[in-house]
Automatic annotation (TrEMBL), chain A:
The chain crosses the membrane at residues 33-54, 95-114, 135-157, 188-206, 213-235, 305-328. It comes from Streptomyces aurantiogriseus. It comes from the Bacteria. The keyword Membrane applies. This is Uncharacterized protein. Keywords: Membrane, Transmembrane, Transmembrane helix.
From TrEMBL, chain B:
GO terms for molecular function: ATP binding; ATP hydrolysis activity. Residues 16-243 form the ABC transporter domain. PROSITE patterns: ABC_TRANSPORTER_1, ABC_TRANSPORTER_2. The keyword Mitochondrion does not apply. InterPro entries: AAA+_ATPase, ABC_transporter-like_ATP-bd, ABC_transporter-like_CS, ABC_Transporter_VariousFunc, P-loop_NTPase. This is ABC transporter ATP-binding protein.
Length: 343, 308
């Protein structure tokens, strides 16, 4: 064995292992990299248009509408197309940004991990010199950086475009509109990263391209629902009590609502309406109700809600990633002496 | 440095029914074991044939040695350490020759160089590939099975491994390419002292080039040792059935045709001359063991186990 020839120096210029592994990953997933770059670029351009010309023309149209289209006015003239164009582009762009985590999860489950395990090229990499741990670490780290960078940029632009529309476009979405909420803040970035981890776990679990794609999508959808359900409960609400004749009054995300009795207890709202409706006053007297209450999040809770939900999603992402590594290390041989560096 | 290229002690691998994951705590039910109670020792510098029918556990054994699977029980060591630590010094070519289909031949070799900067021999890789008239710009997905095998072998050999694990390496090759690549492998083994372990279910394919045998059947090692020793330890005999007493010998297989008894056995002592003992061929030996799963296995390493 000592006769083993001294290794011939590699013809490629010397580079550190990190650069070589980056080169390997890039070679394999160049189309995905280009597709991601193109998608981000297109969305950036659309968001810039939403922020600039599309918003300006829509705002001008609304100004004309409000100036000339008062009830009874004879010369109602405004650019309806500008309003519709802005609304459509905003809706589709926001929808696309909400869909990014699913796109990432499907790609991660199918192309990044599942396909490699199905056709054996993961084993090729493991026997060529990448340990399984390193293989997964490289495969997750590089996309995670690119996904985080891309979605952060998009979220920032979306937020700026949305902010600029407030007060200028009469039908601009409120901050608590669901798709807008998930395109306007860091939860979008956390969801995309969670999608990456969920896809990788799905790929390692199923080891087949198409089923892993579906499971990745399912897991990402579960996380999306979880985020939506958890978000209102991650920060204390504000309570607002109003008279029986006024009805509910709040602007934001409602968590709970109903009637307040004279003792201050909260009871269910029978759904009658305000006391101006016939018979409701009698009903409320019978129920001993003195007013309506609503527990909700006002706009001042925007950042606490975004940040706590982001933290929750990142914690889930870390857990899912850890599960993926444990799964991989359990099913392949790992060295006993030392723990391989994770990254 | 160790003179043992590969050794297994009570090695076993059980596959879960779904998802190919090992399930612990279910041992002993018999089902799901791809490999069981596998003990052997392969000295360094040998060319070892792993022989057995399809589904015998050959691929599982090689994947365990390559560190691609974690054993369910027992352990396997390669080059004196655990398979994960030996990754850089072990070459492996899987049965289906997986390669990245979207890359070209040249890019595939660059991947090999990137993942093995310390040991990569680009010249050797290019030599093997160009001997097959392969266009370096051809995409892997356009290659024939034999061409893929050539690229996969080039990747494994350019890594300059001390131990080369090949799972059914020649199955896709035409006779000419088979001869040429086998020659390349053998010269590699001779030049660098590389230990080569290759599996096949075609015994004739390996008889000329291998000096060590590992016969796997039903997930267990049935025969292990130097081929010459194994052949010398067995005899084919034929005698009159009423006169022959096979009792003291270990009978692998016996058959009675009329009054004539023919048998393949491991003599416990000198055989009577009128039994006309002859040395079996490797194929006869392998087939006799495969046809008779109840025959006692012969694995010299079993007794040396404590010394490993």
């Amino acid at each position: 064995m000592t006769a083993l020839a001294t290794p011939v120096a590699a013809s490629a210029p010397q580079a550190g292992p990190t650069r070589r592994h980056l080169r390997w990953l890039l070679r394999l997933h160049r189309p995905a990299l280009y597709a991601w770059g193109a998608l981000v670029a297109v969305l950036v351009l659309v968001l810039l248009a939403l922020w600039g010309p599309l918003l300006d023309s829509s705002a001008a149209a609304w100004r004309d509408y409000n100036a000339s289209c008062a009830p009874g006015s004879e010369h109602c003239r405004y650019d309806q197309n500008a309003i519709i164009r802005y609304r459509d582009v905003y809706t589709y762009t926001t929808f696309t940004m909400n869909a990014l985590p699913f796109l990432v999860a499907a790609w991660s489950g199918a192309a990044l991990v599942g396909r490699e395990l199905e056709n054996g090229t993961a084993r090729l990499a493991w026997t060529l010199g990448l340990s399984p741990t390193r293989w997964l670490a490289v495969k997750l780290t590089v996309p995670a950086v690119l996904i985080a960078a891309g979605t952060s940029l998009l979220v920032l632009l979306h937020r700026l475009a949305w902010e600029a529309s407030q007060g200028r476009v009469d039908t601009a979405k409120s901050w608590y509109d669901d798709p807008t909420l998930h395109a306007n803040g860091p939860t979008a970035v956390a969801l995309a990263l969670a999608g990456l981890a969920a896809g990788a776990l799905a790929g390692l679990l199923i080891r087949r391209t198409l089923p892993a794609l579906l499971l990745g999508l399912g897991l990402a959808f579960g996380l999306y629902l979880l985020a939506g359900l958890a978000l209102p409960h991650l920060w204390p609400t504000v309570s607002n009590v109003t008279g029986l004749d006024t009805g509910y009054a709040y602007e934001g995300i409602e968590v709970d609502s109903g009637l307040v009795t004279s003792s201050g207890a909260h009871i269910d709202d029978p759904g009658c309406g305000t006391t101006t409706t016939d018979g409701c006053a009698e009903l409320y007297t019978k129920l001993d109700a003195t007013g309506f209450y609503v527990d909700y999040h006002p706009e001042s809770h925007y950042w606490p809600l975004q940040l706590t939900t982001t933290a929750l999603l990142l914690a889930v992402t870390v857990a899912v990633t850890a599960a993926a590594f444990v799964l991989l290390r359990r099913s392949t041989a790992t060295s006993h002496g030392r723990r391989e560096a994770a990254v | 440095m160790t003179d043992t290229a590969m050794a297994a002690t009570a090695l076993g691998k059980r596959f879960g029914r779904r998802w190919g994951l090992p399930r612990s705590g279910e041992a002993g039910t018999g089902g799901g074991w791809a490999l069981r109670d596998c003990t052997f020792r392969l000295p360094a510098g040998r060319v070892c044939a792993v022989v057995g029918p399809n589904g015998a556990g050959k691929s599982t054994l090689l994947a365990l040695a390559a560190g691609l699977l974690a054993p369910s029980e027992g352990r396997v060591t390669v080059l004196g350490t655990d398979p994960a630590s030996a990754r850089a010094r072990v070459g492996y070519v899987a049965q289906d020759k997986p390669l990245y289909p979207q890359l070209t031949v040249a890019e595939t070799l660059l991947v090999g160089a990137d993942l093995n900067p310390a040991r990569w021999n680009a010249e050797a890789a290019e030599r093997i590939v160009s001997a097959g008239d392969l266009n370096p710009k051809a995409r892997i997905r356009t290659l024939s099975g034999g061409q893929r095998t050539r690229v996969a072998l080039a990747l494994a050999l350019a890594k300059q491994p001390e131990l080369l694990l090949l799972d059914e390496p020649m199955a896709d090759l035409d006779p000419l390419a088979r001869h040429e690549l086998m020659g390349t492998l053998m010269s590699q083994a001779a030049q660098h002292g590389t230990t080569i372990v290759m599996s096949s279910h075609v015994v004739a394919e390996l008889e000329d080039s291998c000096d060590h045998l590992l016969l796997v059947g039903g997930g267990r090692v049935r025969l292990a040792g130097e081929i010459d020793d194994l052949l010398a330890a067995h005899a084919r005999v034929s005698a009159l059935s009423e006169a022959a007493d096979l009792e003291p010998h270990t009978v692998v297989e016996s058959r009675v045709t009329g009054r004539q008894l023919t048998a393949l056995l491991r003599p416990a002592g000198r055989l009577p001359d009128d039994w006309r003992p002859t040395r079996p061929s490797l194929e006869e030996l392998v087939l006799a063991y495969l046809r008779n799963p109840q025959a006692a296995p012969l694995t010299p390493a079993t007794s040396e186990e404590s010394a490993v």
